[in-house]
Predict the structure.
Amino acid sequence: MDFSVRIPFVELLGFELHRFEGGEAELRFDPGPDHMNSFDVVHGGASMTLLDVVMAHAARSTEPDMGAVTIEMKTSFMRAAKGPLRATGRTLHRTATMVFTEGHIFDAADKLCAHATGTFKLMPRLATGASSAQPLNRIKTD
């Protein structure tokens, strides 16, 4: 399944979107040598990015035309992440502008590697690109 918006950093990491509906999302990630830390397991920053992206997608899955901006995120690592990873995210609660989520990363043996909670602010998308009257995707943050 294709991502609904282009996220260059996600493309660089190679995340794949497998579910995006009803307050839930699922991503897959097959980490390569460049994604490892000095212990030869997936770097925590790559894992946190995976959790951030899957939770943001869960947050916007009921309103895909909106953007989701990360307000805060807490991550707990249970075990080293190795091999192909599966990340799940789901919406826990939503207000008019805020979405509270949780996410999990599972390894190839379906063992829980990391858990996170995150809060996202829903924002209207702004026009971007060459044909746009607005060349930069600037958002009002107040």
Notes: The longest helix spans residues 44-60. The first strand starts at residue 16 and ends at 21.
